[in-house]
Design goal:
The chain is an alpha/beta fold and 544 residues long. The chain is built from 23 helices and 10 strands. The strands form 3 sheets. It has a 5-stranded parallel beta sheet with strand order 2-3-4-1-5, with helices on both faces. A 3-stranded antiparallel beta sheet has the order 6-8-7. Helix 1 packs antiparallel against helix 2. The longest helix is centred in the first third of the chain and has 30 residues.
Length: 544
Amino acid sequence: MEEAIVSFAIERISGLLIHEAVFLSGVRDEVERLQAELKRMQSFLKDADRKQEQDERLRNRVAEIRDLAYDAEDVIDSFILDQVAHQGGFQGIIERFTCFFTKPYHLHKIGDQVKAIQTKLEDISKSLPAYEIPGEGQGSCSSSMMQQRLRRTYSYVEEEDVVSLEGITRNVLAQLMTEEDRLHVVVSLVGMGGIGKTTLAKKVYNHNDVKQHFDCCAWAFISQKCSPREVLLDVLAKVHSPPKEERELRENELQKRLFNFLKEKKYLVVLDDIWRSEDWDILKPAFPRGKKGSKIMFTTRNKNVALAADRRNSPIELPFLSDDDSWRLFKRKAFPTDTMESDACSKEFEMLGRLMVKKCGGLPLAIVVLGGLLATKRSRAQWEMVQRSIHAHTKQDNQYGAVNGILVLSYNDLPYRLKPCFLYLGHYPEDWEISKKELIRLWIAEGFISPSMESGGILMEDVAEQFLGELINRCLLQVGKMDDTGICVKTCRIHDLLRDLCIDKGREENFLEIIQPSLISHFTLSACMQRRIAIHPSKRDKFC
């Protein structure tokens, strides 16, 4: 995210240097040096973006760079605003020249502000060698490692945790059982993190009919940091008992070994949690055509990955649970048979439980984690305390962090240009039907889509449309209504939990703040560091 902010500041400075060259006499050198320093910082931020979660000192340094980039934007905006104030045809041009001849202190002030920012950036730059960015695998308890352990835990969900998947299960089974005779037939389960893709895949994978249908089956966990060699070894270990020396083979030798073993088999290989098409491109040479009916199954958050792997098979998209199905799943976790001693007690807890389950928005993982938490709470007071804290998602509390962490993974994986576009969705009220046309215009007005992205006849509006499609395909945004043609998106929605993530991350990045009208009298604008403020009426205000 910080990389995007610095990038915006660099583009604003570039525009200033090009369009206001005449009026920058005396401070142009300082502005150019600031631009160069920000570009150096941008290179550092590319490496730091995924690693700052592991190091609080690094996180603080990144935040300092972000705030200085914001300061640079403010100086530029103040300069441009002053120019606009003196524009107006030939008379305006005369006034602009007159302004700078009669008020040299204005340029001097800008020069001082730019120098101050530049000095701070240079001080940070000198300290960066001390902040050695840990490489892959370093750090005993990195967030990504915690997420992998969490995902592995949820990969083995009990059968009783599967609700409302009968129809989809039949669909998946039918696709797996078809006797297609072509290379790389891929069946894909697509949906946002925690919606139950792995749960459904496990249910199908362990189904008796599947075990009998295929000669051999293997399951491999991919994740964001795909290690092709480890995946190949994993699959080999499942389909046959490899000799010890096989672990010493090079990657291309492992590919050949697996290919030769599978080519005479009707096989099923599940690649769980695959994020990028590039990972599949590296792995697929190891998987032969095999016997008629061989299949690869994906679980992925990114629909584009599924479509690229097999354009002849439509991805199976998992829906959110209905209110009734959400409650059924929650009850299995929160109400063990020996916990509730009376119907009266059950009804007392049910009212609170249903209110909290509603907040999970039909997301199975959120419901399971919430149910597991409440199963340990025996009193009404404890349940009420959880209800009051349900939106906190504090990092110190791993019980809530388990849900939030799964969603944060999807956010962290976004290209840096998409992160501000995603966080911006948090300024819409809950359950809002978002107009695509309005959203695209706002993204452009905010500078998230810059003129530099236009190329080969592609306009900024086209780029923004691509960004929107990317967020939808990554399951971070839901399609609301289609236009009359049924082809283009007209409106979209954001899931409540993802909106909470936008707001939490937005505050953390000084990007966005939401306030209620009732709190305006207690809100001090000068003390607020946020770049954007959205005022949302409460439900009571709406109906007054």
